[in-house]
Write a structure and sequence with these properties.
This protein is of the alpha+beta class. 33% of the residues lie in helices and 19% in strands. Strands 3-1-2-5-4 form a five-stranded antiparallel beta sheet, covered by helices on one side. Strand 4 and strand 5 form a beta hairpin. The longest helix has 17 residues. 17% of the residues are buried. The mean pLDDT is 93.
Amino acid sequence: MQVNDMRPEFVRFQSAVPNRRGGFPGVFGLANALARSGRLDGADHAWWRSSNDWADAAYPDPEVVQPGCYDATRNPGARAWFRASASELLTFTRGYLDLLDRHDVAWVQLRTTSPGRIVYEDDVQVIAAPYTQDEWPFPPRPS
């Protein structure tokens, strides 16, 4: 067995294109933006509201548990990744991805065993800041 086979895997669903600030919002941020923009019909809006309420009750909010985990100065670019082992959360997220598909919001799925510098973790997710160039694992090319 290779060493990498023992490392946990993480999954992220995010926008396929950057937003106006150059970031790639995650699945819940994209769904929330759809709702705030008024693009959801009554049924989709009711589903979104009840699903958000359910998720808020079922899972910890990293920013509440560890304020500042998304702080742009201390943890630039920090973003949420689901643990691949969090099957209930991943199944739940499918409804949000279906909502995005119905409204032609392009998204991509990322998988990795190395999401970045982990600044928060719980049983179902981590918040990780992308590695910096100084943390890049390969030496620079010789000049």
